[in-house]
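Here is one chain, start to finish.
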Amino acid sequence: MDGHGYTARKDDYLKRLRRIEGQVRGLQKMVDEDKYCIDVLTQISAVNSALQSVAIGLLEEHIAHCVAGAVAEGGDTATAKVKEATDAIARLVRS
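Its structure:
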């Protein structure tokens, strides 16, 4: 396996993360300017959704590339990669 599962789409992920970074800076400005609470919360919800979207994309890439490759090889590596993926899913579900 060369690179990580997301390597082919790395530029897309970076673009999305930069957009999220801009949203967070916008949130800071909203708080600094004492904007209405509900408007700030609405923007926080948008940032959370955007981050979840990135996380789901990375998880899909991980399963398709890293986990599938490990499963094809079999053995302890496969078991470890499946456990790693399920732990990541559990963290996402709890967040």
